Amino acid sequence: MIEDELRKFFEIYHVEVKDDVTRYYVIPKIIDSQEIQYFFQSISQDYDIKFKRHYGELVVEIKRRKESYTINIILFILTFISVTIAGSSFYGEIDILQGIQFALAVMFVLGSHEMGHFFASKRWGMRASLPYFIPFPTIIGTLGAIIKQRGVIKNRKVLLEIGASGPLAGVVASVIITYIGLKMDFQPPRVESFLIIGAPPLFDFVAKLADFKGEYIHPVAFAGWVGMFVTSLNLIPVGQLDGGHIMRALIGGKAEIVSRMFPLVLIVLAFLYPESGIWLFWGFVAIILSMQRHPKPMDDDPLPLGYILLGVLTYIVGLLCFTPTPFILSKNI
Q1: Same domain, 220 and 146
Q2: Whether residues 172 and 256 fall in one domain
Q3: Are residues 22 and 91 in the same domain?
Q4: Which of 55, 99, 225, 308 has the most beta carbons within 10 angstroms of its beta carbon?
Q5: Buried b (16+ CB within 10 A) or exposed e, 313-332
Q6: Residues 19 and 151 reside in one and the same domain
Q7: Is the dihedral of CA 83, 84, 85, 88 positive or negative?
Q8: Which of 112, 116, 113, 126 is closest to 158 using CA atoms?
Q9: How confident is the model at residue 277 (pLDDT cuts 50, 70, 90)?
């Protein structure tokens, strides 16, 4: 019973029940605040929790959460439409069927990443939402996807698995899509300007497997490239990014030092490789993300060797997906 657990931390002197909301009027006991945090994290999987003052009295308000997938479905449809429109423009004249093909590739890559997190969370008993895709008028029609996770991070193994599962699942999907795309013929329309993409080592490796010798890549292969690029960005060891989770699992509290210093690496990259103009932006984004303190696992003991190797392997995958000059806008002469 939640009330029995609450009594470990609070004196409860009044209870109100209205519809599906229960309000507990409480007086805190002198206890370990970290223990309270873990308790509320554990019940947050199934309940929405609010602390507030009501006429000077401290109230803990608990409401059972009702899961709804309506928003997920709406965002999925809107994102599919926006990615289809973006992909349709790659062919000169608008080609909806080709745009749908591009959308399927992009959504598969991004969805695989998020579902990796989803299944890792489920494996450790944490509640995870389905992906929330984000439609946006970028060159690919989306800003990606996210999932919400609730529950206690039991130990560093949980943290590392959740952090690594998304990038590893996403990169497998990216390799598959890249290979398929590189086997497809594509002749771009005559335009005033076009995008030159930098090929990361993994992309070059897949190109050799596919025996690709062309000058232009099919938009489906570009979707695979996007997946690799997103993987490298997600593995930046800062804040709540996947790379931040992995670094916290590997080195514990010292990860905050890495998180605060790493934005400087991105800013240096911006001056070394100014062609793309992306690293300065990501340097400032990383500064903002580094201000978020990482939650401490209940059991903060060091990882066993196998998990350390998994973390190192995931960072290596990120490096294989990295290119210092992701894209350059070039003019036709």
Answers
A1: yes
A2: yes
A3: no
A4: 225
A5: ebbebbebbbbebbbeeeee
A6: no
A7: positive
A8: 126
A9: confident
177-194: per-residue pLDDT in tens? 999 999 998 777 765 566
Cα angle vertex 283, ends 280, 289, to 5°? Answer: 150
Residue 133: which domain range? 70-331
What's the CA gap between 1 and 249, in Å, rounded?
32
Q: How many domains, in total, are found in the chain?
A: 2
pLDDT of residue 333: 44
Last residue of a domain, one of 18, 43, 64: 64
Query: Rounded to two decimals, what is the model's pTM?
Result: 0.85
More reliable by pLDDT, 291 or 237: 237
- Same domain, yes or no, for 19 and 111? no
pLDDT tens readout for residues 85-110: 999 988 777 889 999 999 999 999 99
